[in-house]
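My current task is to audit a protein record that another person submitted. I have pasted the whole thing underneath without changing anything:
***
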Amino acid sequence: MASKIKDKEYIVSFVLRGVQTEQFATIDNIFKNEDTIQIQANIDFGVNEESKIIGCIAKFQFEVQNQPFIIIGVKCNFEIEPKSWDSFISAETSSITFPKDVLCHLAVITIGTARGVLHAKTENTKFNQFFLPTVNVNNLIKESITFSLEKK
């Protein structure tokens, strides 16, 4: 099933093609119940021009005093429909630019997926009490991102 992002300027059709847990670790002796927890969040993107895929990687670290006790990294691969993909290409600069709102939408899906992976990986452990909070992706993704494409 294809999804669409509607905006005043474009419609982007895409399909979620894959989910990968790229990183997962829990460190037993770091967290104590009275500790204050910090969560570090990072979102990154990459493209596969040949497959018309944009990958979104969400990484999170639950930390106490700058020491991580849960580390999780999840990647979602989104296949962009060719017409939508081509609409973002600049032939002049041999690049593709994904608008911020498209990136934010893909990031929200990836973060939700990471939330589920975290639950599944920590089920029936003491770490299952920790959840990824809602994330304002506008704080993580400030602008559109441009990727260079190979010249053909």
